[in-house]
Amino acid sequence: KTEKDPYLKYIDGSYDVYIKKPDGWGDKINCYAYVDEKTNNGEWPGVEMKYLGEGVYAYNLPDDFKTASVIFNDGVSQYPAAQQAGLEFTKGQSMAYINGSWTKVEKKADDIKITFSADTVSAKVGSEVKLTAQASGGSGNYTYKFIVSDNSGNWYKIRDYARSNTCTWRPGAAGNKTLYVDVKDSAGAYKRAALPIEVKKVNEKLSVKLAESPSGTAKVGSEVKLTAQASGGSGNYTYKFILSDNNGNWYKIRDYAKSNTCTWRPGAAGSKTLYVDVKDSEGAYQRVELPIQVTKQTEKLSVKLAASPSGTAKVGSEVKLTAQASGGSGNYTYKFIVSDNNGNWYKIRDYAKANTSTWIPGAAGNKTLYVDVKDSAGAYQRVELPIQVTKQAEKLSVKLTASPSKTVKVGSEVKLTAQATGGSGSYLYDFLVCSPDNNWYRLRDYEKTGTYLWVPKTVGNTMLYVDAVDGEGNYRRESLSILVTK
């Protein structure tokens, strides 16, 4: 019958009245319903009916129309005809006008419907959540299967099909989840319902840690940084910092705020106690305390820096840097730095307790040496020291000539000329002679002049020498041979 009259699938009893459009009627069909002369569902031609398909239209009468008369029309044609009584309708019994017949509609079996709920919309990890599903419609004798999925696409079976419509679930991880129930009836019909739920971590007890920098002791007027770190509770912490002294006086350093750090400047010496009060978003409260000893301010930190050699140094040579700090709170650490005239900065050595360091210059030029010093209270001081770095001198060398050369006469004058190069300059010259009989004589002791007039007295091959030294004590000897004749 359904294949022959496919429109019948739309007439399922879910509406009060139906009409199968008569031949020749327009596409807009109205339903005019009246209880008496004064009570109707609207002025003629009534209310437009809902089109369901295959020429079938449907309408639900007002809820308070327990009994009524019904007239269908398209604005031109109508049924029943004019001056005839309307079709009789009783609430609770669907009726259909099909091919001239006003007939009762047997309501089809309902599809399975499910009401699905949990005893909470937000659960904690590890807590019990009771799931309840209530099915209706279908053929009855339901079985229920419970499932959960997470936002990562993972699916887990909570419980397989069983007759019980309740189930207990323990969330194992935090996050947004979706709960499902699958229901089957005795005829094998199937329906699924879903329920979103948020799972939260179980809050640990609110706890707080408080630290200060410097720790344990501070100087009057110095900066003390307070850092509090809360954990547990419900998060969204606010922090309040407080101070008390040994005389029972209390002072608020800073009122509640989200920042977990605060700076405090001690105003008087003595034993103090620092406090932080913390609240979370649910109003949970926790206080921790920290003792601190405030001492009077010492002399200002000062530093001296010396270099050896001082003033100038050679590329590649060792320069010993010595810093000497005083004042402050003691327990100094030293950092050595160098800069050049091009604005380049280089760290020679990072902070350490040793107050000396060795620096080997890598390039010539004007440099500035620095030492940064910190004491145990965090006080800081920098001093600088200029130094000139020069290129490494060439090795000292000396050249010795005689005029006349090679052969000279006894008693004649021979001009000896020595010329030193390299080294550090500021040369001194010492002239010597070794006679043919291998006796040594100093002709002249060290002087700045590099020339000397020598008068030979002995015939034979004679060796002449010059010793040259520079300003740094570097030494070089050179010699030449000359024949002395009669």
TrEMBL record:
Origin superkingdom = Bacteria
Tell me where in this chain the PKD/Chitinase domain is found: 113-202, 209-295, 304-413
InterPro entries this protein is in? CBM26, Ig-like_fold, PKD/Chitinase_dom
What's the protein called, per UniProt? PKD/Chitinase domain-containing protein
Where does this protein come from, organism-wise? Agathobacter rectalis
